Amino acid sequence: MQCRNCGSAHIKKNGRSLKGTQRLYCFECKRTFTLELDARRLTKSACAKAVVLRQEGESLRSIASILGYGKTAVWTALKNVPSDSFSGSYTS
Fold it and tell me: What pTM value is reported for the model?
């Protein structure tokens, strides 16, 4: 995640807005801002990379870390992919 005002990655969570969306604080420009909904969803290319990484046996946490998204965003993207795409992933 990056600051919408200055582009810095040095940010932290800073409560919730009146609408209930997550607020963030930037240490560089000293401003608070909220994430737009699209910033929390995986792009099509990131979703494709997530599918490939899952097929290779990577965990949700590692995929989220590699792509720079949250675990929930990765899980939401992957659960919409047909299960036959992961044919060898869950077998023991």
Answer: 0.51
